[in-house]
Design brief:
By secondary structure, this protein is α/β, with parallel strands linked by helices. Strand 6, helix 3 and strand 7 form a beta-alpha-beta unit.
């Protein structure tokens, strides 16, 4: 498998020599990091030339605060796990854009898998749709739009798919409040579901503390 991935990486580097991208092999998987402007070109070539006929999955990722672990602590703090209630914690400068779109592709002909990742910035973040390459991208892209607010240019029907049509915000963004923006309930007098301001107080979770057990100290 390693030789197969190395061969595929060499072929991709030759095919995409005129664009900027990275091809890395880790944990038995080949990942292509491409610019958002090149996503459609790369995906089209992977489908047509390299026989990646199936889009197995497409998802968004929010890399805000990536690599910063508040759980790694030796003692409990008075502030607790603040990310759940403090949106300012996410307003930090990162080397890469905050959001990325991931494509998991399968070549049945060659029994190979590949992952394509494209970081995209801006508000809202934008990237080209690949629905015309893989029809299965339709609902995947709608889900990424719904949960992360990523706009897929050229999508034929980009609208929410999991949340309500009047939903405010994108619930998989890491700065989305844990309690949400509104709460809903059935009103027996109006005989319909109504939306109201959130009535519960945001909760601060105290991180687990990792302590050494003296019984196991040599």
């Amino acid at each position: 498998m390693a030789n197969s991935l190395e061969t595929l990486r060499a072929e991709l580097q030759e095919r995409f020599a005129d664009i900027s991208f990275e091809a890395n092999i880790a944990y038995g998987e080949l990942t292509l990091d491409v610019l958002p402007a090149d996503v459609f070109l790369v995906c089209q070539a992977l489908h047509n030339r390299f026989d990646f006929s199936q889009l197995m999955d497409l998802c968004g990722i929010d890399y805000s605060q990536y690599g910063q672990a508040e759980w790694e602590t030796k003692q409990a703090s008075s502030t607790g796990f603040t990310r759940g209630v403090n949106q300012e914690a996410y307003k930090t400068e990162n080397e890469k854009p905050r959001f990325a779109v991931i494509y998991h592709l399968l070549s049945i002909k060659h029994n190979q898998r590949i992952r394509v990742r494209a970081f995209t910035d801006g508000e809202p973040p934008r990237i080209d749709s690949v629905v015309t390459i893989w029809a299965s991208a339709n609902w995947f892209e709608r889900e990424a739009f719904d949960l992360y607010g990523i706009l897929f240019e050229g999508h034929p029907d980009l609208r929410r798919i999991l949340t309500d049509y009047g939903f405010i915000g994108h619930p998989f963004r890491k700065d989305f409040p844990l309690s949400g923006n509104v709460e809903m309930r059935y009103d027996p007098e109006k005989k319909r579901v109504i939306y109201e301001p959130v009535s519960i107080e945001p909760r601060t979770l105290v991180p687990k503390v990792i302590r050494h057990d003296n019984r196991y100290v040599n």
